Amino acid sequence: MVVLGAGPAGLGVALLLARRGHAVTVLERAPAPGGLAASFEVAGVRVDHGSHRLHPSCPPEILDVLRAELGDDLQLRRRHGRIRLAGRWVTFPPRPADLARRLPPRVSAHLAVDAATSPFRTAQRDTFADVVRAGLGPTMLREFYGPYVQKIWGLPPDQLSGELARRRVGARTPGALLRRVLDRKERARRGVFWYPRHGFGQIPEALANAATRAGAEIVCDAEVTRLDLGDDGVRVQACDTTIDADHVWSTVPLPLIARLADAPGDVLDAAARLEHRALTLLYLVFDVAFVSDFDASYFPGLEVCASRVSEPKRYRDGRGSDPDDRTVLCAEIPCAVGDDVWTAAPDALASRLVTELRAQDLAVPSPIAVDVRRVAHAYPTYRVGYETHLQTVESWVLAQPRIVSLGRQGLFAHDNTHHTLATAWAAADALAADGRLDPERWAAARERFATHVVED
Asked: What are phi and psi of 275, to 5 degrees?
């Protein structure tokens, strides 16, 4: 068995296959396992590739494995975030009293009207704008979701598919939103998260160690260059290495699989039309213990280039390992490969961000150092009409009995870590005792994946 990619999904399926007695080789292009879930150091502080949390809705069988591997290092933490709405700071996840106290009366009145008129609205087209406008109302579209998707994907909401709303908006009617805000059990569930003591990267590190103990081989700095599909297996070429595999379990971007396997022309054309939004991760170092009391601040509006700014030290109890005299803010700045943000000098981008944050009533000191990471495939872009191209590529992949495409990138999906780990568990379970993939079981799992809704 060959697994492409050593992120959470790849390591998860490698662990399960190895524990079930299969010979497993994991090929990872980067120098170390982890993918975008990896952690690394900036000025002596462990940071992540943006804000990562393991949500309480993680399936229990997966959480049990992680707790067994991480022990007390996997901490249950209370969320303490905030979001900038209509020029005001509001607690996030929202609380009823805070919303009533902080939202401008004008916005509250418009939201009340939208709730009352909700039964009379219907979506005219299957776009993000129409789905949100019909469900939550024009005020939520105007004040929050419209600017948010414009910032993240660089497209107006009426140019994005309605499927994006179904994947990204958990409560899609005023009643559902009100129940989420008022329900104490739901607020309690959404108010906590799991996070490792030494950064989110401890999760893939633990999975990699467990997979290695189970017999899997993890090979880094091994970029796959070609897949030759045969009736009885797949020949995998990676740099100077050639491996003959019974099955390939791929977590690399879905369009890349089509190119590596030299798919038919119509499939390659469709793959070329599947787009991703990029992300520049800007790390600001400060010579103070903490910058604020909040773990994350969300900026749906266009007045700040970052969509979220997080302070990794606030995500964990790192006493004894985190430095006392330094902290780091991580800013997630959506962009396109090659645009002004992607190519900006780190110091210039930091100066812009600090100026914009201070304009939002944030007391941000001047950073003493700046670092940057760039992610080319951060968010799949669900442009109107993308479904046709995705179906063409997926149909071809599903017709290959020796390839399983899983994980966020492999499914072209908007998923949290617990979702992507669930795809790994389901993929391993779809392999029958005789070594053949059960297509019906995998199809049923994929139907479940299509119902995943991102938790922020």
From this structure: -105, 155
Task: At 3, give phi and psi (nearest 5°).
Answer: -110, 130
Beta bridge partners of 276: 380
Share of the chain above pLDDT 90, in %: 88
Alpha helix (H) residue ranges in 261-363: 265-272, 340-343, 346-358
Phi and psi torsions of 236, nearest 5°: -105, 125
Rounded to whole angstroms, the Cα distance separating 272 from 293 reads 44
pLDDT for res 170: 80
SS3 label, residue 152: helix
Give every CB contact of residue 126 below 8 A, 6+ residues apart in sequence. Answer: 161, 162, 163
Burial of residue 240 (number of CB atoms within 10 Å: 0-12, 13-18, 19+): exposed
Q: What is the four-CA torsion angle of 314, 317, 321, 326, rounded to 10 degrees?
A: 20
The answer regarding whether domain 2-77+198-274+383-449 maps to CATH 3.40.50.2300 reads no
Count Cβ atoms within 10 A of the Cβ of residue 280 and give its class: 0-12 exposed, 13-18 middle, 19 or more buried.
buried
Distance CA 133, CA 136 (A): 6
> Could you tell me which of 104, 152, 421, 407 has the C-alpha nearest to residue 300?
152
Say if domain 276-381 classifies as CATH 3.90.660.10: yes
How does strand 369-381 pair with strand 275-286? antiparallel
Residue with tokens 């939520």: 140
The Cα 189–Cα 181 span in angstroms is 12
Q: Do domains 2-77+198-274+383-449 and 276-381 have the same CATH topology?
A: no
The DSSP 8-state label assigned to residue 154 in this structure reads S
* Per-residue pLDDT reduced to its tens digit, 169-222: 987 788 887 777 777 787 788 899 999 999 999 999 999 999 999 999 999 999
Q: How far apart are CA 413 and CA 183, in angstroms?
A: 29
Six token digits for residue 438? 């059960």
- The pTM score is 0.95
> Does the pLDDT value for residue 152 go beyond 90?
yes
Q: In whole angstroms, give the CA distance from residue 173 to residue 151.
A: 23
- Each domain of the chain, given as residue ranges in start order, spans 2-77+198-274+383-449, 94-183, 276-381
**Gap between the Cα atoms of 146 and 129, Å rounded:** 7
Residue labelled with tokens 């995705």: 390
The alpha-helical segments, DSSP class H, found in 28-95 are 60-70
Our measurement of the distance from residue 60's CA atom to the centroid of its chain's CA atoms, rounded to an integer in Å, reads: 20
Residue 184 token pair: 């104490």
